[in-house]
Design a protein that fits this description.
heterodimer, A: mainly alpha, B: mainly alpha
Amino acid sequence: MKERIVSLGILVFAMVYTAGAIALKVGTLAQPGAGQFPAAIAITLLAISAFHAWLTFRKTAEKEEGHSWTELAPAGIAAALVVYPILLKTLSFLLSTFIVLFALLLLLKFKTRKISFLTALVTTILSFIIFSGLLGVVVPSGVMEQFILKILELG
Amino acid sequence: MDILHQLMMGFQVAATPINLLWALIGAFVGTIVGVLPGIGPLGSMAILLSFTLKMDATTAMIFFAGIYYGAMYGGSTTSILLNIPGEAASVVTCIDGYKMAQKGRGGAALTISAVGSFVAGTLSIIGLMFAASVLADAALKFGPPEFFAIGAIGLLFLVRLSGGSLIKNVIMLLLGLALSTVGTDRLHGSARFTFGISDLGQGVEFLPVAMGLFGIAEVMLTAVEKEDMGEMIRIRMRDLLPTLAEWKRSIAPIFRGSLLGFFIGLLPGPSPVISTFVSYMAEKKISKHPEEFGEGAIEGVAGPESANNAAVGGAYVPLLALGVPFTPAMAVVVGALMLHGITPGPMMMSERPQLFWGVIASMYLGNVMLLVLNLPMVQLFAQITKVPKPILLPLITLLCLIGVYSVNSSYVDLYVLALFGILGFVLRDLGYSPAPLVLALVIGPMMETALRESLMINQGAIAPMIFRPIAGTIYLAAALGLIVPAVLTAVHRKKDPALAA
């Protein structure tokens, strides 16, 4: 089932990509346009992904191999990845990083809640000091970030 | 003589305190990465890319080289002591290494592995030095048709050698090429597949894609895997000394492994991994005691461990001489060079000799550091495998997130990371190898530009693109490389029906 879903997903992508590639100017062999290379890839991808999808549907259903995609740990990590940029945009670096890290530690059952909280707190502050203070990476900052940078400057 | 002079200059660059320090840190981090199952040299190099932003380009390259060959050293430790390969290139070492450890010869296996890695590493750097110089000189005569030929043939070999399902590898390759067309067209300046998102104008960034497919996907896969750690075999310092007989039996496999590894390293694909299997099979075939293989034969450790280190040197040749990465790890190195405004290629050797020769000289020094670092600290490195997953995985995820954001301060890059992390988990779970996609994404733009320029130069005629002396030789060599093994296999199958079954 998983194989069939993925092969269909790739086929749909190939169709959409082909539509987009054909819409670009293909040009001639002597004067290739912006769409020539994408069109060549699109047609090949469409043919191969259609053949692959046909193979997966022709095969009799076997016992599913691999992991379950709905297990809590990978689903939680996926959710954290999607949520992080949204939080980073609205809450600034320290708070968003702390929330995501604390959630991941709880999700993966790292010792007690108290230890997870402290670990997330210390790691977040340390990562801010390393990336922003030492490496000079510009991260979304609020009052707390400015406060830490001030302390670092005084130090 | 000129090469020796340049190498001396390289040693002056590599021996500065800052470069020595980063070579040591790289070797140390690489060893840890090699020891830890799950996160490989590629993932760690991608994660640490942001750390190189403030470094000089030469220092960044020295740091990455240290990580890459450090990982090859470290991978053997857990294979021998715990029967757990730290990374894919150490799988073969488990077979005889762990058996030796069970028989009380684990220390000897570790020493032979470290010495073999050192010898192979040093020999492959000599090979890299000469091969890259010759190839870079030759590449100055290359035009667009030759660069297209190298890209196309490289990807073809990659698909063939990546292992697993051929059709899945082809699909991943085409997906990578499709992604490489996103962004502003280089020749006409028109936007392609950007959907009005200005951040996509520069194309899909390689870093979040690689970190998603290798780093995040690995974290998600590790999170669902059951822990199955064997009993660690303890080693005392005095156990580290091999017997005279073990030394004698190891010398030839070390040299054979070095030679095989270097040449396999030149090929596209997971060359360090392939080299270990080829070396193991070769040693078993020519051994006077093939029955000992699988039961603790020292040759089964010496050959493969030398081969995977030599393959690292080989993998650097196409990158440094042609600017074409043939392994995903080399693609990260290209990413790091690009971040510093350097486009790798045949001109790099003449335009930036300090970088080219500094990196090569640092590899010699790094190999000595690894030999000194690894043996006395072997027990400590083995303990690193005990770091619990519930703390390790969130930290790697955090490093990926901050690492990706820090390069361009882009939220789009974070979404790309999330997308490819999730896709990587799903695809890798079903046996799709991410390497063809990542390499096609990097090589794709070069191939497209080369193809279109070739067509324009030849007014649309395809034959003159193929039948040029250099391009024609590349196609012919590739055809022989792909067809001859297939024909030989078919002939063997016909002779021996058992093989066909």
